[in-house]
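Sequence, structure tokens reproduced for absentees:
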Amino acid sequence: MAFVLLVLAALAFGGWGLWRAYGPTPANAGERLREATARIDALEQEAATLKRSDQISRQANADLQGTLAERDEEIAGLRADVAFYERFVGATGQRHGLTVHELKLEPQRDPQLWHFVATLTQNLNRGAVNSGHLLLSVEVSDAGRMQKLAWGALRQQQNAPGIEYSFKYFQQVEGDLVLPAGVKPVRVIARLVPSSGAAVEQSFTWGDATAGAPASR
């Protein structure tokens, strides 16, 4: 028994010696742990920096695309304005009498309420003041039957006065219309009644008049 205990003690002592000789010392293990931790921190920081740089690049690119789109839209609008004004000041511009250059309608919060803006123009009598009233009517389909809603019905006021205008070259006039529930608008008729001279009528399809307008508010 004593011999066995002696052998076991020798083996234990030898194993302890080998571990001391070849195993990592506490100091060495701590240093490696610190190095590994520092490396992990550095890699995480690098990854975070790269991710942020990618986000910034994406956002910068998106901002640039948005700015370019805004500039293109602005240029298109300015070109349209130039073409519009050339009708009045251009020496070679075609002369036009009193007319509704453009009619736009936009829905309001109430689905039956619509706001309209009409652009009136003339360059036939340059310098002369044109004055009068604008009235609108709307052709609608009601359960498959066509009917025409007069200005008074659209304004919900019998004998409602028209929208006054007075200008030399152009003017925008606006107002609101109320459509009955359940009808399908088809066409808008604009009637200009000048203070002197014959009345002028123009029609616009409902699709053209509401083009570009939001579906609802």
The chain has two domains: 1-94, 99-209. The beta strands are 99-107, 113-121, 130-142, 145-149, 163-167, 170-178, 184-194, 200-205.
